Amino acid sequence: MKKRLGIIYHSSIFDERRGFIEHSRSLYDEIIIIHPERVIYEYRRDSVYPLMWMDGVSLNDLSMVYFLEYGDCTAQQLLLLLGNLEKDGCPLSTGLERFVHCYNGITDNIGKCYELLQTKGSNVRTNSYLIHSRAMVDETLAMAEKNGDFPLLNKPINGLGGMGIQKLKTLTQARQFILENFDEGERIILLERFIRFVKEWRVYIADNNIICAYEKHAGDNRLLKNLSRGGKMMPIEEDFEYVEEFLLKALPQDCRLGLYGIDVGLSESNHYHLIEINTVFLYRNVLEVTHVDLPRQAVQILAERARILT
Fold first, then answer.
1. How many other β-carbons are positioned within 10 Å of the β-carbon of residue 14?
2. Of 101-115, 124-138, 164-178, 228-242, where does mean pLDDT reach its minimum?
3. Most distant pair of Cα atoms in the chain: their distance
4. Residue 57 and residue 63: Cα distance in Å, rounded?
5. Which of 172-176, 177-181, 213-217, 269-273 has the highest mean pLDDT?
6. Across 9-34, average pLDDT
7. Quick one: three-class SS letters along the chain?
């Protein structure tokens, strides 16, 4: 019996992901770095999934695959690989459904896209909207106005660390901005309801287990912001049990299995909100602040789902 691990990550941030690789060496017999753009597929009539090869190495008998970064592949190449791995029965570190939600322009029906964003299996409604095409703009904004979600934030979904966020106060302003800046086929528009938070936390979770968390502070500015934009990480001192209780109830059903960095906020009206679920995240200085070795604990939890093949 042999356990083989596949890892998808971008070589430019190897140091950031080194911990996941190093801590996995004692849990797996072999580690393969996967480049989705180099995978070759051999389709068969008698099987629902193809044979998959990369540089002569079979990917059909992997025990598990970690997705740690987007790499050099396109969204289509990534989805093709992950979809076929899932059909082959290979456990993934992040649920395939989350990738479909974020990447794939699968529909021009706003109702369907809105449904995909809902926190399934919980009593929490998301205040987010996805736009895949110009045809969806008017209907999406009308739904946001009907739900009372203005003002909205237009947020890049490609990990820009808080850059490029635009506050859209009215439907008219939002429509004009989106139509002027939407490059059809090149990007997806993500809109979120603007909420002023008095506290915000980043929580790291693996397979429904909270590993560690820290509180975000504004640093040299009154407004909370990303670490890359001057925000500060602070140890959690109080009230986190309420965050844990909220998060485990609010977490979408398709995130019950997987590795995520999740942002939770407490609004001025004293309500908790699920802000973002990040499938790719940075964790610099997390050990220093939380005293928890995030990669070590994450890979140990994920390894419980790994399959053993003969």
1. 12
2. 101-115
3. 62
4. 14
5. 172-176
6. 85
7. CECEEEEECCHHHHHHHHHHHHHHCCCCCEEEECCHHHEEEECCCCCCCCEEEECCEECCCCCEEEECCCCCCCHHHHHHHHHHHHHCCCCECECHHHHHHHHCCCCCCHHHHHHHHCCCCCCCCCCEEEECCHHHHHHHHHHHHHCCCCCEEEECCCCCCCCCCEEECCHHHHHHHHHHHCCCCCCCEEEEECCCEEEEEEEEEECCEEEEEEEEECCCCCCCCCHHHCCEEECCCCCHHHHHHHHHHHCCHHHCCEEEEEEEEEECCCCEEEEEEECCCCCCCHHHHHCCCHHHHHHHHHHHHCCCEC
Domains of the chain: 4-94 (3.40.50.20), 108-193 (3.30.1490.20), 197-278 (3.30.470.20)
Query: What single-letter amino acid sits at 271?
Result: H
- Find the helix packing angle between 96-103 and 110-117, rounded to 10°: 140
- How many CB atoms are located within 10 Å of the residue 138 CB? 14
Cα separation, 103 vs 184, in Å, equals 14
Query: How many alpha carbons fall within 13 Å on the CB side of residue 145?
Result: 14
Residues 78, 99, 104, 191, CA torsion sign: negative
Give the list of residues 6+ apart from residue 46 with CB closer than 8 angstroms, or none.
Answer: none
Read off the pLDDT of residues 116-172 as tens digits, 9 standing for 90 and up: 444 444 444 556 787 777 888 898 899 899 989 999 988 765 544 556 688 999 999
